[in-house]
Write a structure and sequence with these properties.
165 residues, Rossmann fold, 3-stranded mixed sheet, 21% strand
Amino acid sequence: MLDDLFGPGDRDPVGGPGFRNELVWSYGLGGSSPRYYPRKHDTILWYTRGASWHFDPPMIPARSVRMRGELKKQPDVWDVPSINNQAKERNGYPTQKPLALLEPLVRAHSRPGELVLDPFCGSGTTLVAAVRAGRRALGVDRSEEALAIARKRLLAEGADISCPG
């Protein structure tokens, strides 16, 4: 469906708008079923809408002997731990993502002052990451509980949480 909406992108020999990358978020925590392999990752799909886009990749220390002391682009598998039950960041929302995952994504794909939209904002982690990175944030969710948690988190960040309309 995303290919239909945005275009095939890099999967099309001509290129153009659409699909750019598939990122794998590997986190390791969580349960295990006796009926299948433990699910310890999520997939994040990166699509672009136009012919140009912003990309300032997160940089990590290189591990090869040849590149020792240098930085390289973060590859497409990110090992970012889930938020454990005792973490100060945890707010009790069941689908909460860690800021350590969302902050580099927001910085990589938007410029300061730009608008970051999260149409399924849940507990507001993307919105908090956007505010911390100097971006404007717009979140939508149908859950009043989610919106209350997101609102509380944004107020704690000193964000202007005025609602349009």
